[in-house]
Amino acid sequence: SAVISQKPSRDICQRGTSLTIQCQVDSQVTMMFWYRQQPGQSLTLIATANQGSEATYESGFVIDKFPISRPNLTFSTLTVSNMSPEDSSIYLCSVGGNQPQHFGDGTRLSIL
Amino acid sequence: GQQLNQSPQSMFIQEGEDVSMNCTSSSIFNTWLWYKQDPGEGPVLLIALYKAGELTSNGRLTAQFGITRKDSFLNISASIPSDVGIYFCAGQLIQGAQKLVFGQGTRLTINP
Fold first, then answer.
1. DSSP helix/strand/coil, B88
2. Residue B15 above 60 pLDDT?
3. Chain A contact residues (CB < 8 Å to B)
4. Contact at 8 Å (CB) between B98 and A99?
5. Whether the bond into B8 is cis, omega within 30 of 0
6. Rounded to a whole number, what is the largest CA-CA distance in chain B?
7. Which of B88, B53, B11, B104 is nearest to A94 (CA)?
8. Predicted local distance difference test score (pLDDT) of residue A98
9. A85: helix, coil or strand?
10. How confident is residue A5, by pLDDT bands cut at 50, 70 and 90?
11. Which of A43, A56, A92 to probe by mutation at the B interface, max B CB count within 10 Å?
12. What confidence tens digit (pLDDT) does each residue in A69-107 have?
């Protein structure tokens, strides 16, 4: 299966700032997704990252808060904008297509 | 939105015991997936199920796709210390879209 690398692995940020998380895959993949996992909780899909077009967001998530880029079939970024303490979570990238979704190790984000 | 009810939320067992957990939903899914998440890591796929009634094994793990397509269970036989972690079920509603809905997770603790 594809190897997924996420950067940074963790960060501590000040409220009001923004952070961009990168997801790099070692092979071309059809589908890429971004999830949020709040402390002690399950995974919730934020959006599907579409190559060459705007991401498809799930209910409760908006582009202004979580802009996503996917310039090619191996790379995507998620930006968490204007962060508040409620954004403290693990953000996970996953890839799919011809096989079940596989996940990166996530970015652990804490906002002070 | 769709929800998966996963139970139990936590389990405390002795090493060597068998484990059983399940997920139910009011919605019909065309794929069921079981993942395990260790601290500091992303979820790792254990078993994928694609057909109603399908029974699949992966070593000491066995999972089944319910006949009604609204439920699935995961069994672990002869538990060992490395089985400790959080287990998540996930359902895929629409073939091809690969959007996943996750259960709340089952936290497994093993007493040696």
1. strand
2. yes
3. 4, 31, 33, 41-45, 48, 59, 92, 94, 96-97, 100-106, 108
4. no
5. yes
6. 43
7. B88
8. 80
9. helix
10. very high
11. A43
12. 999 999 999 999 999 999 999 999 999 988 899 999 999
